[in-house]
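Fresh eyes needed here. Have a critical look at this protein's tokenised backbone.
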Amino acid sequence: MDITVLGIDLGKSVCSLAGLDASGAVVFRKRLQRFRLLDLAELPSCIVAMEACGGAHHIGRFCLEHGHEPRLMSPLYVRPYVKVHKNDDRDAEAIAEAATRPTMSFVAIKSEEQLDLQALRDARERLVSDRTRLINQGRGFLMERGTRVGTGRHVFQKGLTKLTTQGTVDLSPRIVLMLSDMASDLGEINRRVAAIDAEIKSLAKTDADMQRLMEIPSVGPTIASALVAVKITGIAI
């Protein structure tokens, strides 16, 4: 079979494949377990099209190493090419067809370094979100008991520490113990966020793209790392 474009609908365990020849006709259909995608190394060089979803960048780099041309697309751009009675096989065919459109916008393959940076940022975002929820919950506990703490994370933490060490007649021992646990959790979250910030700053000292971005006023390591992680540095700076 002369496959020009291979569309892959990536699943968590099973993937659907559809191959098009040079005329755009479907000449190949198959379902494979995800780990069997390594067999692409034995396929003659062709365009390998996928939606930019979980694991697609890893497979894209594998394809590059074995002479294929990976093309990643946003699922939103693929949707118009899905025919009636949507299923995994038709999704694979739609992905292959979308990859042949001359006006299609493709997603750049991310390097392992970019994915590591993105993972750092995602972990930091989760920790910051957890910290915000914890502070809001603590503020709610105190409000219900007529105790007001000033706004702002640092002000709240200082007030929380003062309440848990000195106590107050408005708070029961049970609530004081709970707030003490919350203060301990906040301290641990702050430590982990600071560790990630330190790692991002360390990476910024050796990354040329981040260095150029930080020449822009008001752009520091945090913003620069976000731009590098999503490959925005492909434009001239």
Strands lie at 5-9, 14-20, 26-33, 47-51, 69-73, 106-107. Residues 112-144 form the longest helix (33 residues). The helical segments are 56-65, 75-78, 88-99, 112-144, 153-166, 173-204, 208-213, 221-229.
